[in-house]
Structures are given as structure tokens and as C-alpha cells.
């Protein structure tokens, strides 16, 4: 119990159980949560890699060629594949959570959660198309 | 289907033992019997010393919450037959101190509940002669879901954050704060803000989401918390960019 230490006559001997160190292995949802928390490192790496890539592109064809070569090394490739999967996992679980956090009203009616989620996926797709167009088309 | 099922029931007799042990009982298992019926059968016919709480036996009072095979459940709404052929393990709700057998102490929640001021607050009350505070069905819908909470504590039992850090305000208390914040008749949102947005308030939640899954009343406490996070973030942005209060 928290801060109140009220004296109770014949106070029962309460049993306080400890949370097991391995609580996160007890349920799939707990494990999924820990996976999300732990995989932040990979997401961080993904961002860093993007910055390195943009930086290399900015510096000219030579450095771009060099980073491509480096990226083809098995361990970098492996790391990037794993990171990509985790980034996708984060994106999907994030979009899943959006309707719970974001309640949108149009006039007096509440927009259904699925639509809010769909709008986010649309925005994601649009942004991807835009970037693809910038890189490939322009 | 077998006509009996075994219940492995957690026992804690503070004057005799220092940890939980399990006693096994065979109870009848007709298809309409819930876990609570099994416990009542034990208490009435097999072992009168078993202690547990219940009242309404219809999912209203919120007092019969226990862990059934590791999942927090209302035992009056959990059918024995769903677990056939058994055995079924019945334990007190985790994350709360056990007083005896299946009875836990929820005093911690009761104190937290008062801190979020779960009642309608007005800046100024209008005189009775001016009539009631009226509300449209749409306005009711805004908070109705959060008002369905029966304080059964299943969400606290499912929340690993509350288990690890008992200072965390927890799912139901925050959902109930939101129940009043979103009520068109209430003007107390700013009074609740300090408690809700402290570190042990909404920010303690890391969105495991189990509270929403186990809630028997579809309150969606995880949603209430995430929604309030957004509100609190917007408020603090406002405070930075519009310090004079727009
Ligand atoms: S939010 Fe749901 S699980 Fe939590 S106390 Fe209320 S009714 Fe029970
Ligand atoms: S006995 Fe009242 S909710 Fe189960």
C-alpha cells in the first residue's frame, strides 16, 4: 500500500508477491511489448543509416558508390534487413494504436477508428510514393 | 463432457503459512456453472474455510475478480466448461497484497481514485431553480464507455507496469478521470491535470495494452490513457507557444 500507514488493530499479515523477473515471458502480449521496446535500437540504427546515406549522396558519386559497396557487406545487409522488419513492426503497431489515442470528430459525429487508421495508412503510402517519385522520377 | 472438474485453489492462511499453497477440489461442471459457482460449492459442501469475495454474481459489483488459469477474470462470468477437462487454477489477483486465500486488498486503488477527483466539478454551481445540467445523447456518448467501469481491478492485475511500480496511477483511475473530463457538464479538467500528467500518471503507461484486453466492461482504459497523453502534450505545447493562455 502507498503512503498511508494507518494503525489497524489485529492487522492481517498481507502477502506481497513479487513480480517475476521473467514476467515478460508469461504472455505473448507482454513479449510483444518488450520486443517493441527492445527493438528501438534497431529503429535508431535505421535512422542513422538513412542519415549516412543522405550524407553520402550529398557528397557526390564517389562517396555514394562507397556506401553502396559497404552496404553490400553481409553483416550490414543482415542488420538492415532485421532493422527494416522491426521498423515495419513499429509502424504497423503504431498505426494500430492510433485510433485509440486520436478521436476525430466531423461536426458532431465521431469518425470510426478504422477510418482514422486507414487515413494514416493512406498518408504513409502517399509519402512513400512521393519519395519514390523524387528519387526515381526526378 | 466430464461432469466434474478439478479446481486448484490458492490458499493463504496468514496465521499458518507465509506463502500461497494450492488445495484441490472436485466440483460439478454443468454447462451453466461459472467458476464462482464452483467456489460456492466448495465453501458450502467441501471446505467452509475458503475465503473469497463476491456479491452480485452478474458482472455488476466487480468484487469477484481472480486469476483463472493465469488470466484476470470475473469469476461470475467465466464458465467452468470452457476449461474442460481442467484442472482450473484459481488465484488471487496479482499485483495486490493478499489478505487471505483469494481476497486481495485494493486500498491502494481507492486512494488513487480519490486523487483524480471522479465527480462532476463546476466553477460555479447554478441555482437549483435554473434546472438541471442537460446533455444530448451525443455528449453522453463521449464518455459513456468510460463510465461503465465496475472497479473490478482486472486491469491493474493485468498491468505489468503497476506490478513493477505500484506508484503508477493505473488504468481504471485514469479512465475514470477521463470519464469526467469528457463529460460536457464537468469543468474540472484543469484540476485533474496535475495528478494525471505527473510522472506516475499517464506517462507511467508504456502502452502494453493488456488492461483493455482483460476489461470485462469494454472500458478501454489503454485508449483513455493514450488519448489523455495527446491532450496533455497539446496542452503543454500551448503553454510553450501561447504562454498567456489563449
Ligand atoms: S477499467 Fe475495466 S478492468 Fe479496469 S476496473 Fe474498470 S471495469 Fe475493471
Ligand atoms: S460477483 Fe459481482 S461482478 Fe462477479
From TrEMBL, chain A:
Gene3D superfamilies noted in UniProt: Fumarate reductase/succinate dehydrogenase, transmembrane subunit
Keyword presence, Lipid biosynthesis: no
SUPFAM superfamilies on file: Fumarate reductase respiratory complex transmembrane subunits (SSF81343)
This protein's UniProt keywords: Cell membrane, Membrane, Transmembrane, Transmembrane helix
InterPro entries, A to Z: Fumarate_red_C, SQR/QFR_C/D
A Pfam family recorded for this sequence: Fumarate_red_C
Keyword Cell membrane annotated: yes
Domain of life: Bacteria
Transmembrane segment boundaries: 33-54, 75-95, 115-136
GO CC annotation terms, alphabetical: membrane
Name of this chain's protein: Fumarate reductase 15 kDa hydrophobic protein
Organism in which the protein naturally occurs: Luteitalea pratensis
TrEMBL record, chain B:
Subunit structure, interactors included: Part of an enzyme complex containing three subunits: a flavoprotein (frdA), an iron-sulfur protein (frdB), and diheme cytochrome b (frdC).
Cofactor dependence: [4Fe-4S] cluster; [3Fe-4S] cluster; [2Fe-2S] cluster
Protein keywords: 2Fe-2S, 3Fe-4S, 4Fe-4S, Iron, Iron-sulfur, Metal-binding, Oxidoreductase, Tricarboxylic acid cycle
UniProt organism field: Luteitalea pratensis
Gene3D superfamilies, sorted: 3.10.20.30, Alpha-helical ferredoxin
One Pfam family matching this protein: Fer4_8
GO MF term list: 2 iron, 2 sulfur cluster binding; 3 iron, 4 sulfur cluster binding; 4 iron, 4 sulfur cluster binding; electron transfer activity; metal ion binding; succinate dehydrogenase (quinone) activity
The reaction(s) this protein catalyses: a menaquinone + succinate = a menaquinol + fumarate
GO biological process, one term: respiratory electron transport chain
Domain 2Fe-2S ferredoxin-type: 18-96
Co-factor binding comment: Binds 1 [4Fe-4S] cluster. Binds 1 [3Fe-4S] cluster.
E.C. number: 1.3.5.1
All residue ranges annotated as the 4Fe-4S ferredoxin-type domain in the record: 139-169
Protein family according to the UniProt entry: Belongs to the succinate dehydrogenase/fumarate reductase iron-sulfur protein family.
Pathway membership: Carbohydrate metabolism; tricarboxylic acid cycle; fumarate from succinate (bacterial route): step 1/1
Record's protein name: Fumarate reductase iron-sulfur subunit
Amino acid at each position: 500500500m502507498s503512503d498511508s500507514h494507518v494503525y489497524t488493530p489485529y492487522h492481517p499479515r498481507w502477502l506481497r508477491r513479487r513480480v517475476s523477473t521473467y514476467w515478460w515471458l508469461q504472455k505473448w502480449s507482454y513479449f510483444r511489448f518488450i520486443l517493441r521496446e527492445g527493438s528501438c535500437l534497431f529503429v535508431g540504427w535505421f535512422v542513422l543509416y538513412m542519415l549516412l546515406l543522405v550524407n553520402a549522396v550529398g557528397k557526390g558519386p564517389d562517396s555514394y558508390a562507397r556506401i553502396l559497396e559497404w552496404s553490400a557487406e553481409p553483416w550490414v545487409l543482415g542488420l538492415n534487413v532485421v532493422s527494416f522488419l522491426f521498423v515495419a513492426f513499429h509502424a504497423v503497431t503504431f498505426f494500430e494504436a492510433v485510433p485509440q489515442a486520436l478521436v476525430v470528430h466531423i461536426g458532431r459525429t465521431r469518425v470510426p477508428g478504422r477510418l482514422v487508421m486507414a487515413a494514416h495508412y493512406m498518408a504513409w503510402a502517399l509519402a512513400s510514393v512521393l519519395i519514390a517519385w523524387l528519387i526515381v522520377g526526378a | 463432457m466430464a461432469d466434474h472438474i478439478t479446481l486448484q485453489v490458492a490458499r493463504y492462511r496468514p496465521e499458518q503459512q507465509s506463502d500461497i499453497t494450492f488445495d484441490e477440489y472436485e466440483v460439478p461442471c454443468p454447462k451453466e456453472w461459472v467458476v464462482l459457482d464452483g467456489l460456492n460449492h466448495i465453501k458450502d459442501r467441501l471446505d467452509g474455510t475458503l475465503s473469497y469475495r463476491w456479491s452480485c454474481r452478474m458482472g455488476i459489483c466487480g468484487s469477484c475478480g481472480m486469476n483463472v488459469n493465469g488470466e484476470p477474470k470475473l469469476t461470475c462470468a467465466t464458465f467452468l466448461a470452457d476449461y474442460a477437462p481442467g484442472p482450473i487454477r484459481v488465484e488471487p489477483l496479482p499485483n495486490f497484497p493478499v489478505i487471505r486465500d483469494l481476497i486481495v486488498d485494493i486500498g491502494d486503488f481507492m486512494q488513487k481514485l480519490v486523487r483524480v477527483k471522479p465527480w462532476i466539478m463546476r466553477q460555479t454551481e447554478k441555482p437549483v431553480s435554473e434546472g438541471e445540467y442537460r446533455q444530448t445523447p451525443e455528449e453522453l456518448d463521449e464518455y459513456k464507455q468510460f463510465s461503465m467501469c465496475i472497479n473490478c481491478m482486472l486491469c491493474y492485475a493485468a498491468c505489468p507496469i503497476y506490478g513493477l511500480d505500484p506508484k503508477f496511477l493505473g488504468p481504471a483511475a485514469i479512465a475514470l478521470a477521463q470519464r469526467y473530463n469528457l463529460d460536457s457538464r464537468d469543468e474540472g479538467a484543469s484540476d485533474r491535470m496535475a495528478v494525471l500528467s505527473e510522472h506516475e500518471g499517464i506517462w507511467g503507461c508504456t502502452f502494453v495494452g493488456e488492461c483493455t484486453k482483460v476489461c470485462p466492461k469494454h472500458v478501454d482504459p489503454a485508449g483513455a490513457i493514450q488519448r489523455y497523453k495527446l491532450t496533455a502534450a497539446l496542452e503543454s505545447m500551448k503553454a510553450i507557444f501561447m504562454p498567456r493562455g489563449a
